[in-house]
Amino acid sequence: MDFHRFFWGKRFFGAFIGAAVKESLSLRLDRDFLKEAFLTLLWKGVPREEYLAGALRYAENRVESLLASLPLSVFLRHVERGHDVYVVTASMRDWIEPWASKYEVPVVGTELETVDGILTGRFDGANCRGAEKTRRIAEVVDLKDYDKIYAYGNSSGDREMLLLADEKVYNWDHVPAF
Q1: How far apart (Å, rounded) are the C-alpha atoms in residues 48 and 59?
Q2: Candidate CATH numbers 3.30.1360.40, 3.40.50.10190, 3.40.50.300, 3.40.50.1000; the one for domain 2-170
Q3: pTM (whole model) above 0.70
Q4: Alpha carbons 82 and 136: distance in angstroms, whole number
């Protein structure tokens, strides 16, 4: 949500969210449908290059400041120790990847569809949450190649991913030693 507010401005975004929440509550629609509908309303018709420029500004100016100090310090400790680190997120990969690339960390995330250089607002593939996270992880890494897997999550959409790990941390209830 923060990226959308950053890109569109607080006034427009606040009015939009108020109307969207009122409508979604009355219809009781599922989370993935609502997210895609929300993204379509905001991004349909926007040139991809304009969106990517905003995503880069956001990554450079906001992403790191949104991370609490404990998760950021643990992330950096994994990177400094040379661990293979992946950011797996339901957020749009495009606004996380420029930040993660500073640390040479790949990002697995939700993608927006583009047709002829213009965003449609629809997902390109599935929303990267729940079982989709585990499917995407399996596409990019063979977990059998590792003696120990660490996973960190903060939402119900992380549960399946956490089940893949030897060390699971949910909502920073503890910090594993490594």
Answers
A1: 16
A2: 3.40.50.1000
A3: yes
A4: 22
